[in-house]
Amino acid sequence: MSELRITTDLRSSPHLKQTVSVPQIMRNVVYALLPVCAWSVYAFGISVLLLLITTTLTCMLSEALFCRLSGKPSSISDGSIAITGLLLALTLPPGFPLWMAAVAAFVAVGLGKALFGGLGYNVMNPALVGRAFVQAAFPVAITTWSPPFLPGRFSEVIPSTLTAPFMKPVPIEQWVEQQSIDVFTGATPLALQKFEQIITPWPDLLTGTIAGSAGETSALIILLGGIYLAARKMMDWRLPVGVMLGAVIVSLPFWLLDASRYPDPLFVLLSGGLMLGAVFMVTDMVASPVTPLGVWIYALFIGMLTVVIRLFGGLTEGVMYAILLGNAISPLISLVTQSKIFGERQKP
Question: Does the pLDDT at position 162 exceed 50?
Fold first, then answer.
């Protein structure tokens, strides 16, 4: 009788059907960001293009420097540092001085990433760390806005863009007058609502025909980028949905209570940097929780805190601080929401 042998191939979990590398994920995030960058350049002109180039190149050079100093192989090729540079530029005003943008990029990589050990170890979103630094260091420049769609935006730069270090730029109002613009308040939709109770029409917010940071103008393009990443399964859709839900939960009661004073939920979602933060920053795989329940808690916390800061804080925008605080408590959320091991006994 012949011997029947059955060979089984037993392997431990997880049983992955396909593998997606870090460079592949980062490359797709860049793809999703490119339309946002393109619209920003179209709306504000050469100044934003120079801003994007400056922050991205500075981030790459800083990454190479810190990798060399720490004796680690360069991680520029994985694409993560390019995302940091692009996101940082999109959070800055269109006419932000380039030398300040370079400082922000260096701080983003040094304090936001290299200090914690590099890719995969950063506690907070590096782009927001750099943005928070320049907001504290250069409060006037970070709150100076330019109108979109100026006729000469492709033939000349905003004067403040090429301002020399520690020199005073040409006032934006004076330059706007030379562009044949009759009325420009210099205020973003959030500032108009907070201080003058003027609500910008939602179609303008959706399409991005308003003043603001380079990447906070077109909510529609940002949403399309998020849908692309979610469809490719390279983004946890619960994170942006949770942020938006948290923003609605807080804003809706106040709007129903006094619509003349508080903005409606749709305005809250489409204005400012909430959409950009929800889709491209809150979804940072390193800084967000790893448990299903923790993801919802984390996202809801950021969305709710954003609206609280907007309505009751001294600043018009609260997305940056809400995300950074969410990053800070993310490890605690993951720890508290960990599932109990089967058969584990509770410690006395």
Answer: yes
